[in-house]
Each structure stands twice: as structure tokens, then as C-alpha cells.
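re the bet — no i am not wrong, look at it urself. input seq straight from the record:
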Amino acid sequence: MTLVSTAGNPVPGGAISGMIRTSDGIELRFARWNSLGGNRGTVCVFNGRGEFIEKYFETVNELRQRGFAVATMDWRGQGHSSRQLPDRRKGHVENFSQYETDVDAFMQQVVLRDCPPPYVALAHSTGGAVLLRIAHSGKPWFERFVFSAPMIDLAGMSGSLLAHALARTLRFVGLAEIYMPGPNNSPDQSPRFEGNDLTSDEGRFDRNVGIVNADPALAIGPPSVAWLNAAFDAFIPFRDPRYPSQIHRPALILAAGADTIVSIPAIKKFAAHLPAGSQGVIEGARHEILQEQDSCRAQFWAAFDAFVPSASA
């Protein structure tokens, strides 16, 4: 499967990409790169809902320059992996355990087979929720976990009991596959920098819009009712302080100080109970820390560099 290259976002050299199949028959697109020097192992990048491999080319380059190989993939239902509904713009899963099936296929067929250990997981937002579940399960793949604005709960009214009840009710009455109702949930809205919740960096915002303009098949709309209900179901165990206390691998959790999508208090509460965890808040950053302004990204990389070296010691 070809990676999309644009003038402002060229494919990093040496990419190897293709398709793998999960145990439940879903095709996933993956890509991997060797390091640019050194042998510090592999960082596996797990992106957020609605994202795609190309959005992280800048991050891939920065990790390779640090001596890491990099591997990443598109979750089911987004990017160029199998879409789950006839309307391919709908972000849809029935349960977050399906995402864990994606990780299993990716690790078994790409990372463990072709990428040098040790392995570090770098997970953003929805990817963070999935990888927290992986970390809690005790699977021994990753030496360390780095989380960027993990989706432990949603912010504001989006994360309310009322919103969960609405999603559950709509699913119960057979409307699981419709777009979740909401004031900003039109699939036909064009992305605009003004007022966006993702990044304060207009250049990177425009770059990411340009990738989708170059390949509209990468686009995704609002989540389905089933997706949001599955997310709410995933949040329930996160609220129990015993859950993070059972994650024993070292974990770094970085919240975005200006995040309006995921709950900063929920992140802080969760991180406080990690037995081998560190946490920080990048003030001024909106939700997508790695798509943010250089000053925010510099704080992320400083925390990453201070946390990760011992993983390959």
C-alpha cells in the first residue's frame, strides 16, 4: 500500500509499507523504517481516532534521528485500513477490544518479525486508551510506554453521564451505525484552523489538511454511536484507582494544558496511581501535542528523551 507524499510532507526515505490481516479478517496498513544510525530499538507509534500514518512523518524522522527504528499502522476504520461501514467516513468499532486485535496482528506480523528490540510504545489519544489496556493486560511486548494526551475520559459535557446514556440508548434501539448526534458532528464540515481543538500551529494544521486533500480516501468524519459507546465502556475501568496500580511497566503520561477533547483531571488522577509512572502537562498545547508549535513539541521531546534512554540500557 503506497504512502501519500506531498510537497510539505514527503515520505521519509527507506519506508517499507504494506497490508496485514487480523485474526478477525480486517486488513491493516502498516509502515516501518530503520533507524538513521544507532541501535536503540523500535518505537511503535499508535495514533488517534481519525488519524493516519502520513500525519506522523515528522515524528518518524525525529525518532529515527534519535537512533530508533519506527513502526506504525492505521487502525481499523481509518486511514487505508479496512473501513467498517458502507459510509467510509464513519469512524466505527463495536468494542475497543477490536483495537487490541489490531495491535496483536501488528506486533506479531510486523514488529516482532522485522523490527529490532527493545520496543517502546508511543501512543496518542485513542491510541493511548488502547495501549493502556495493553499495558494493563500484562503483555510483555513493550519495555516502556509514552502517552500523549491519552483518552482516559472525554472533557466537559462530551464526557458526561448524559452523553454516555444517550450513546447507549441509541445503540440499544438499533442506531449504532449513525453519526453520534452533536452540534459539531456534521461529516461534511470542512476543517478550519480558526477555532479548532487540535493544534495552535497553523502550518502543521494546513499540512495535515493538505495530506487529505491529496488523498481524500484518508478522510474520516465524526464517530458512530457504537464507537462512542465503546469509548465510554473503555473509560469505566480507568476510573478505578486499582486499574493503573496494576500497570507495572514504566509509563510517561503527558497531558496537553489547553486540551478541550480529553479530560486533563482524569489523566492526572490516573497517572497518580501508576506504580512506575511519570506525568507532566505541556501548558498551552492543544490536544495533538505532536502536531503543535515547536515550543510545545520541544517540551514533549525533552520529557521523552529524559524518560526513554534506560529502556535500551
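see?? The chain has a mean pLDDT of 94. told u. also Residues 3 and 276 are 37 Å apart (CA to CA). so pay up
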